[in-house]
């Protein structure tokens, strides 16, 4: 009887209160793994096997280096900036698309943790 009561307490009280915390930690962990480009650079020799964030880093750094090295025209410089900006937006889309699904847990956590009266 006692283990069943503990399970009921876990499912009815503890988990609903803890869901916002769990959602926050999961989102932080997902963003941390999504932005983990350094491991890929260290362990991978082939450019075909790099993760998306490492490719983004390469595009941003090479574009900045090209603009500093050469006296490029304004049209070429704006194209490089456009490519860098588009790459950054595309690589952030998956996390931005996940956030609305996790946001309801943030709002629930604010409401559960608030004081009344």
Give the gist of this structure:
It is built from four helices and no strands. The protein has 117 residues and is mainly alpha-helical.
Name the helix and strand elements from N-terminus to C-terminus, one letter apiece. Answer: HHHH
Mean of residue pLDDT values: 80
The helix tally amounts to 4
Shape: elongated
Could you characterize what this model shows?
The chain has 117 residues and is mostly helical. It has helices at 2-34, 38-43, 52-69, 74-113. The model has no long low-confidence stretch (mean pLDDT 80).
List the helices and strands and how they pair.
Elements: H1 2-34, H2 38-43, H3 52-69, H4 74-113
Features:
117 residues; mainly alpha; 0% strand
